[in-house]
Design goal:
Blueprint: E1 8-14, H1 22-32, E2 38-43, H2 65-75, E3 79-83, H3 93-101, E4 112-117, H4 124-136, E5 140-141, E6 147-148, H5 165-182
Parallel strand pairs: 1-2, 1-3, 3-4, 4-5, 4-6
């Protein structure tokens, strides 16, 4: 059990590179309802990662600086919240690329993860695929705290703020479950 007086550090990752991404808006809303003592830090380097190549991750030479930055940030986290669209019934390539870069370094090992999905198709497929990938990497996906949000765009105003009170309450409960899983109540 962690020291409950310490700040817990959550890294938020949007699987979308869009400037006005619904997924990123949902992560901002999750940050706004995070329990006291939870710091939510956004990883914004998804687009700057090089294409994964195992030949560049042998340990013989330093990895690309963007990969090193990702690994350092994830390594400092107590848990994660990931919001991803579903593209062609799958995980967006940029998010999968980031996950591939951390397979060998294992920063997700035994850390809790909440998935929030804003896919217009329901998001079941991307959440299932992400869960499989994250669990192979020894991450702990909190299924009961994860949220599928079809038509989430209808719950967000023009400024990117979530306007649906029921959905905000669900986000708050998810973030509290994440804190609980880490050992902070």
């Amino acid at each position: 059990m962690k020291d409950t007086s310490a700040v817990i550090r959550i890294v938020a990752i949007s699987g979308s590179l869009r400037r006005k991404s619904t997924n990123t808006s949902l992560l901002r809303a999750a940050k706004n309802v995070a329990p006291q003592g939870m710091e939510v830090i956004f990883y914004e380097g998804l687009a700057s990662l090089p294409h994964f190549n195992p030949d560049l991750d042998t340990g013989e030479e330093p990895v690309h600086p963007a990969v090193a930055e990702l690994r350092t940030l994830l390594g400092s986290a107590d848990g994660f919240v990931i919001s991803s669209p579903e593209y062609a019934h799958g995980v967006p390539g940029s998010l999968k690329n980031a996950l591939d870069w951390i397979v060998s370094s294992n920063e997700l090992s035994h850390k809790p993860i909440v998935l929030i999905n804003a896919s217009g198709t329901g998001g079941e497929k991307v959440n299932a695929l992400l869960t499989d990938t994250l669990e192979i990497m020894e991450g702990v996906v909190l299924q009961e705290a994860s949220i599928l949000t079809p038509f989430a765009r209808q719950k967000i105003d023009a400024d990117g703020n979530v306007t649906d009170a029921e959905f905000v309450a669900r986000l708050r409960a998810s973030m509290e479950a994440l804190a609980h899983a880490i050992g902070h109540d």
